[in-house]
Amino acid sequence: MEEIETCPAQRLLKMLSGKWKAEIFRLSVESPLRFNSLLRQIQGSNKQSLATALKELEEEGLLEKTTIKLKPLHIEYNLTEKGKMLIPVFEQLEGLS
Amino acid sequence: MEEIETCPAQRLLKMLSGKWKAEIFRLSVESPLRFNSLLRQIQGSNKQSLATALKELEEEGLLEKTTIKLKPLHIEYNLTEKGKMLIPVFEQLEGLS
DNA sequence: ACAATAAGTCAGATTTTTTTGACTATAGAA
DNA sequence: TTCTATAGTCAAAAAAATCTGACTTATTGT
């Protein structure tokens, strides 16, 4: 079903809607993310949902996935430039609470 | 099921999540809202969903419902002070798109 | 008096999101 | 070589959100 976009902020809001995305985003501001640590950090969450959220955040261009080819060869998710542009919005939001 | 709140911005984000809330919020910035007009303005929406969204926005303290006891006796929804505080967040969000 | 408009509610159906549990593939440690 | 960790995927189930259509009650307009 095609959704027409009427409200300009809606797209951005939608980007961060979903049960775990805001939390993932917040943690990504602090440091690079790794799948299994996230799973442990965000209690109540589950693999599938995190995997989906990460994939979507990636598709939206807020996070980028990198394979670190060092010592213990692993995968990292980092905020992109676009993602970083959202930080002030979050800060403002937090200022209101 | 009890949800624990970890991310500070999450509550605010949740306030405006839901298919129609952002749009309703945006329209409320422009002028007071009336149920049936909203229903006509927001194409694709439906009574039930709008009723629920309005009720929730009210509970969250972003909108307030007033019965206008004049000429054609009707009901209006207006942004509260709290609601108005969110305007700059929306503006910032729109600036990014 | 009669029809229309406003502002809903209610139950049930449909859709979307989120969760569960089982399973996979690769790397490193003991 | 066996065990553990990482980083997932897949199908199915469960839960949450949204939509539909019928119905309501009060107020206006004709």
TrEMBL record, chains A, B:
Which GO MF terms are attached to this record? DNA binding
Q: Which UniProt keywords apply?
A: DNA-binding, Transcription, Transcription regulation
User: By what name is this protein known?
Assistant: DNA-binding HxlR family transcriptional regulator
Report domain HTH hxlR-type positions: 7-97
Q: What is the lineage of its organism?
A: Bacteria, Pseudomonadati, Bacteroidota, Flavobacteriia, Flavobacteriales
| Pfam families noted in UniProt | HxlR
Please verify whether the record's keywords include DNA-binding. yes
Q: Which domain of life is it from?
A: Bacteria
